[in-house]
Amino acid sequence: MTQESPVIVEREGALGMLTLNLPKALNALNLEMIDRMAAQLDAWESDDEVACIWIEGAGEKALCAGGDVVALHRESGSYGEQGAGQFVQDFFTREYRLDYRIHTYPKPIVVWGSGIVMGGGIGIMSGASHRIVTETTRMAMPEITIGLFPDVGGSWFLNRMPGRTGLFLGLTGAQFNGTDALYCGMADRLLPSECKDALLSGLAALEFSDNPDRNHVLVSKQIQSLEMDAESQPAPNLRTHYDVIQELTDGATLPEVYQTIAAYRGDDKWLQRASATMTAGCPLTAWIVWEQLRRARHMSLADVLRMELALAVNMCRSGQVKEGVRALLIDKDRNPQWQPATLGEVTGEQVEACFNPPWAQSPLADL
Prior knowledge:
The protein is of the alpha/beta class. α3 runs parallel beside α4.
């Protein structure tokens, strides 16, 4: 692999290393990157010389800021069209298949989640056996801003956060840091960012065996030895705001919860941003967030990803994604003309249509 490759593949001893290599695009995932990562994980699973996988992003700014939504904009339908190219289905199918692969991979996978980790980046990170954050980590599922929804398993991991934290993060796209990620179950260890080289050297020097369980323990201990002390960790948002989040989301229906968050008039900047992001976001997405978490509560991860695949394709067909990405990244006017325009205008039939699979058998039926 050359340095120009969107995924750099390297080996150091028994350590197989993957680097997402589009730093100017904050390592946003495109289909080539997804396919290369999937193929390399397949190859390394059956390679007895590789005992542990390392995944990071090139540059200092991001592991991965999300999926290639500009490509999705190009291939998605506009309002009234009810269309989307085959690319859309292929992209999400292969992305979710990769995410599932990481969740179920037998060998330890260490993901260095420093800098920005959002959307598709969380998809790569959330299923890894060893998820590392640093003092620079900024995480979010901000899909409400582009007319998508918290996918890549969001229905799974948001439902497993403390209280209604996951619902709040899904509705508001609020950013959270490394300390928050530990609190809500999205990371395993918080390390100083300057420890990366020391950790890589330590992992490469481990005396791995052919026993994956033993190797998982070796990796865990190596990471733990470099963990940041509690006094140095970034100030939390989620733990600090937990009681307020519970109050803001304490409604029996989505309109009640939505109105309470929208009506927030306190002086807390983090909560102000969360409220503003939600109210400027896609009204249909808010309904999808509410419904995906309700429906997925007792689903397996495979069933979650099958449900999300139908949702993703349908949201791209409906015109929501094309309009959301246009306003945020193409024309950059930050003035999306959502249809329906308000939460109250969204009908139950429109929400249900998003969940109806557009195929007789899911492309992820074999998970």
